[in-house]
Amino acid sequence: xxxxxxxxxxxxxxxxxxxxxxxxxxxxxxxxxxxxxxxxxxxxxxxxxxxxxxxxxxxxxxxxxxxxxxxxxxxxxxxxxxxxxxxxxxxxxxxxxxxxxxxxxxxxxxxxxxxxxxxxxxxxxxxxxxxxxxxxxxxxxxxxxxxxxxxxxxxxxxxxxxxxxxxxxxxxxxxxxxxxxxxxxxxxxxxxxxxxxxxxxxxxxxxxxxxxxxxxxxxxxxxxxxxxxxxxxxxxxxxxxxxxxxxxxxxxxxxxxxxxxxxxxxxxxxxxxxxxxxxxxxxxxxxxxxxxxxxxxxxxxxxxxxxxxxxxxxxxxxxxxxxxxxxxxxxxxxxxxxxxxxxxxxxxxxxxxxxxxxxxxxxxxxxxxxxxxxxxxxxxxxxxxxxxxxxxxxxxxxxxxxxxxxxxx
Length: 409
Hints:
The chain has 409 residues and is an alpha+beta fold. 51% of the residues lie in helices and 20% in strands.
């Protein structure tokens, strides 16, 4: 392999009397490099957006959430759940109850999710940085209060400065609807707005009205022990996967334990699909540049007919000669792929450091979660890009060289 590599290296990098093929090879390498650069940058931008959005979700989501696999509610006095709460990895826990309801404010109304939370919920989720207005207050004596998502507050035209309660219409979970009088299947309660929160995500800001657990149980007709989930905060340094495994061993198959990503599984799956569809589209474009290597090698083989005859006379067999040009084509691909990947990584690191590419213009500054495109370079993405390009380059280089071995047979 040493001899074919040496000859291929000389053909690629040594000065030639006729440089047209060298220029074509250089153009092929540049095209491949641009394709590899684009792949690295696009995958890194998707990684950046995923991390950015994960960060906004994580402010609202617990480290782990326990819920029923079948059915909706469970008894919070369940022995297995009480045992989970005593695990050494658990720092804080809170029972929650989530159900859909209709909320009306003045002339406006909308569907939303009522999230009833236990009294220690503030120790589980720090709401101070999330509050855009007001405070986190869920009750004041006998008066129920709630904290509403910003998107819902805008939709309902609700404000803590206007003493107008939210009229909540909650379906009774065990009631049969009387078509002659449907209102009997609903409980109605006025909830005063104490605060407005925002995590800058429509899925959260446009979904929840947070009230006390007791209020939610009363609204939907549940007992004091009924809830739909147990949210857990782990101690710093705890291993999430190990904690999940320990909890599942206690609870068995009747309960599911979800981490932050699994709580938004559909969203992350969609983002992942978009990422790899973009990868496939750019890969097809890159293959066009890689296939140019076939033409370059074909012209090189024609130009080197005399060299090929000389090598044959010196004792080189057809497979050795084929390997020379195969390595030549693969080196052109590798040169372009490695250069493009390195430049792509450099651009991504520069974007991380200085935010060269902005989201929108100056007049739109502050309208997005970040002013510049977020990027996160993952070594596995770089490896996938290089393996894909180099494998395609090896296949394409084999096409024009395969006939050399057949010529002597």
